[in-house]
Description:
Number of domains: 2
Shape: globular
Strand content: 15-25%
CATH class of the largest domain: Mainly Beta
CATH topology of the largest domain: Jelly Rolls
CATH architecture of the largest domain: Sandwich
CATH superfamily of the largest domain: Jelly Rolls
Distance between the termini: 40 Å
Structural class: alpha+beta
Number of strands: 11
Number of helices: 6
Amino acid sequence: xxxxxxxxxxxxxxxxxxxxxxxxxxxxxxxxxxxxxxxxxxxxxxxxxxxxxxxxxxxxxxxxxxxxxxxxxxxxxxxxxxxxxxxxxxxxxxxxxxxxxxxxxxxxxxxxxxxxxxxxxxxxxxxxxxxxxxxxxxxxxxxxxxxxxxxxxxxxxxxxxxxxxxxxxxxxxxxxxxxxxxxxxxxxxxxxxxxxxxxxxxxxxxxxxxxxxxxxxxxxxxxxxxxxxxxxxxxxxxxxxxxx
Length: 244
């Protein structure tokens, strides 16, 4: 799971929002809100599934600890990772339209979630106004993330895709009050490669090159950002090249 080291303030933090998981938790733990009123805390072991593609899903899952990946399976049996969800993220939005999940959700580590019934989301007393705003804010952020990924896959070479991904994880850590410079990634290199549309060997070469340039250091799944400005420059440089 992500490194739990707190940071009081960081130069790279771009989020002015309060901790979404804390805000949701506070709005869901008032005296009038009980387990019989739609909220359930659930624990999943590593590799355990929250739900599978095609399942009837009635809940949103707010991640309190750990990490989850969502993926689809093609007709040929290949897995395509859709996204990774960390502390503060919400899983299950895709099932709200018709109650059927379009993806499979799997825990990458021991993961604690709060499950909230779709039907209970906007009932009086289940979520206060702050909680509802936090939930909608997270939905908007996830949509923006999907759009950024499409842009990365369509326009960027391997180095920039990976730099964008590490930068995204860093910002997510900072948003939740953790260190954005040193953190543990819960996903394997195989999963990262799948998500970014790259070969595993390419991801390994990119990591080696970023180490040589002293941009990041990676030891197993522990990431240390050595030069945040260089990392951001890689992403900005690719964006400028795309515009010309």
